[in-house]
Amino acid sequence: MKSRIFILFCCAALFSGCATEFNRVYKSGDYAYKYEYAKECYANGKYMHAVSLLQELVTILKGTDSGEESLYMLAMAEYCDRDYESASATFKKYFSSYPKGIYAEQAAYYIGQSLYESTPEPRLDQTPTVGAINAYQQFLDLYPDSKLRPSAQQKLFALQDKLVMKEYLSAKLYYDLGDYFLNCIGGGSNYEACIITAQQALKTYPYSSLREDFAVLIMKSKFELAEQSVEAKRLERYRDAEDECYGFLNEYPDSEEAATAKKFIEKCKKFTKD
User: Which one, of 191, 219, 170, lies nearest residue 162 by Cα?
Assistant: First the structure.
């Protein structure tokens, strides 16, 4: 018990000593020493301390031999501290300040990487995802032979998949709402909204891994739209649904939804055979 208390006391004393040392350096007017201490903090993984010191130093060191390094180190410290929004802004600042700098290639990559780490799940607003895609694309355009190119491409494709999933979830939501009409006060229907959303996604992302899933939603929505149509539109919509089912079977003959397509065709023929 006494040994445990002694260990805890030593740890507390060590922590207090470290905090006291940092505060002393932070208040110091010796910027050269402060910069060396910031680099030591960064090297030892004390990123929060490094950020606190470097935020002041980048302004003071601007225009000196250490100005470029300090700005890049601040960006990396923010990134390692998982402050991705600040890191992205600082990497952008570095790249605009030193477009031909020693760390320009890495900074261009980490602009996208910082945004990538902060992108939300597909159900949420994907503005950060679009920003990350643009940043990675700019990096690939500027540094086509970079060793970081495979990583950037992989992340870019993953981000595009997230945008596709966002569209799929939107289309699926419209389909699931079905006959619910309170969100269609301005006209149209949920099934029509599902069809439009899914078709636009296929046009934008023609090689998506969710291509069949979108096709299923379009096929089912067209059939359901025909089922609930008024008499004046019923025949036209059943013909459209039937054509969609045949098209689906031609493209996905081994699909798990092939039986559904065939069932829809038989039902459509009751209205279109004449």
Answer: 170
